[in-house]
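Please annotate this fold before class:
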Amino acid sequence: MRLTSQHSVNLPSNLSPIDHEPPASAGTSRVKRGLADNRKLWPPGVITVSLDLKDQKSTALAVDAIQEWAHNTPALQFRIVRSREGDIRICDDESLKGNWSVIGTDAGNIPLNEPTLHLERNDDSKTFRATVLHEFGHALGLLHEHQNPEHTINWNKPAVYKAYASDHFPRELVYSQILELPVGDRLEVTRYDSRSVMHYAYPGYVTHDAKGVDTQHWLSDGDKAIARRLYS
């Protein structure tokens, strides 16, 4: 699936940035933890990842994040190149908005002169690296963990819409990126993991029980387990 939108996001500063890939449809099987679309997994082998980023610092942070995933995907090798040509094409072009990625092998449906993963420029190294981890997880076929059908989040839906919806991020995108639960027979549904890097951070005031989730800056044990399961 191609991106449904490339809207810029106008959120309160204490909310996690939203990315813009749509939830994929698929179905259910059991692994340790994680949520993935198993129709969109890469075949074993070498994946070329092109980096077209503004500076050496951003490039080094992106490489470090990709290597963290690579330690847990033994069936894949990532060949990183500084160019605009690759199986996964990462850029931080300021003419594009938002942090987003197509899901897994959907990258093959994108014209070769277009990126498959976009990162907004950010001088905060910790936040930028965490964003790369999240978006590269999508590039591997992983979906949003807060949309895991087994999640235990007690959403206050009116509060979610009030906090997130704007002219730049309409209600239908809030629904598809936060509240909607993916379904189908090719979805890897597993035990819910609130520490997953694929989980959005959110404050307690958007839930009925005032329980929020913090931003994750490293792969959780569950992230590592699902990556090894999918790419062993």
